[in-house]
Specification:
Distance between the termini: 73 Å
Order of helices and strands: HHHHHEEEEEEEHHHEH
Strand content: 15-25%
Largest sheet: 5 strands, antiparallel
Structural class: alpha+beta
Number of strands: 8
Shape: flat
Amino acid sequence: MNQILEEDNFPKFKEALQKLDLQTKAKLIALWSVKEKRDKLDQQYDNELQVFEGKFQAQMVPKIDTQNQIINGEKELTEDELSQQAKYVKEGEKLDKANQKIEGYWQKVLKNSKTISKYTGEKDGPILKQLKSIQILPHEGTDNFGLEFTFNQNEYFTNEKLQVNFFIDKTSNEPTKVESTPIQWNQGKNVAIKIVKKRKKKVTKTQEQEQLSLFNLFRNIDLNSEQVKQQPKEQLEKTHAKMDMAFDIARLIYDEIVPYSLEYYLDVHVESDFEGDDADGLDGSDDDEDEEISKEEAIKRMKAKFGKK
């Protein structure tokens, strides 16, 4: 039985029933009994749907593996995969089946998503060009899910793979925890932060500040932790906003972009307007006067301030 309906509505139902005549009351009691049976059926549907989705996702993973192998030129194209080529090639054309990777495939896929583009920073491009594959990570028997991003060797970080996993509350169906691989950024290559100079009461300080970047997806937040619960109201709201934003982006990549990457690559997809919070304000910025400078410039200014060469 749906526990939310039972606990929330039964006392109200019982109270409202007292005001009615006995004939009407009898019919409504019978209707409540039918409702209870329907609630049990709803719960059975949810349980069986979750089992089905688990089986479906398990079968999806090897299909996406094959997709990534084709993209990266890691497998020979089969006759079966090319059996419908007559629909797509002109008369006299002969397909080249050489095992060459499609350069910048995932960068183009993500760029063609107006939602992802909105949360992608200017400095993300060279890294996303090195994105080799994206794989979904179903958590069998639960609504939890994850993503795994695999990169070619690059100058920005040393990780080959980055994972992000979301954990969903069974009652509210809302994300309560996100766990991600710590990104091992090379020195001066972290595109998710900027060095800003902040002026307050004639005192100037430099500090690191988040900036717009798709790599802010890789967060570690536990909304049920004491550390988060004890945050001041304004900071707590920002933490929830960061969680919601990361979840919405990951869900879009998991449900739409990975399985329908071909449509995104060709830019023939249909994508609804994103209804999440605006990206502004999610990068840790505030209303203070900020001046963006490079880390090298910040070090140079600090040395000059203290008379060091």
